[in-house]
Amino acid sequence: MKRLFITLCSAATVLLAAAGCNSNDSVKEAQKTNEVKADSATADTKMGDIEKKGMDYDSEFMTKAASGGMLEVELGKQVVARAITPQAKEYAQKMIDDHTKGNAELMALATKKNITLSTTLGDDHQKVLKDVTEEKGVKMDQEYMKEMLKDHQEDVKEYTDASIKASDPDIKAFAAKTVPMLKMHLDMVTKMKATVDAAK
Length: 200
Description:
The chain has 200 residues and is mostly helical. It is 86% helix and 0% strand. The protein is built from seven helices and no strands.
């Protein structure tokens, strides 16, 4: 009887832990997994704190970038299907095309570097998806362009930083190679936004 009680308690603990994990941000969960891997590598190879910090920075950049890339594609698909203005529709299609390729490269690089990426949108990106898709008609197009402007301003900064600060040369190269595409997206949305904002 005592053994059964202990088993039930253990099962309850596991279930509670799992429930706690499910409510967490998928990007943060992936980062935690990567921190455990980095800690293990530190123990195995007597890696220094500076090297571990470099690994943490790289994995944090990659996990955020993965969620951001997924948002561009998922949101792009929704907007292509429902946009009123030709500019929002054109921009959304460009996001699907470019970020589908970028996401594939990012996933291949993460696999090569043994970095775990989230397979669902992080909380911040979930909110953006919800904020845009809850709108209808021209309002959705305008909300989409507003979010894309903000998103690409942040992306250009984060990828530029990673092209300098990443400790892994391949991750650094990937970030540097992606910056011109993100700048082009930023220029494109900056020019198109005024037309979409003026639409009725």
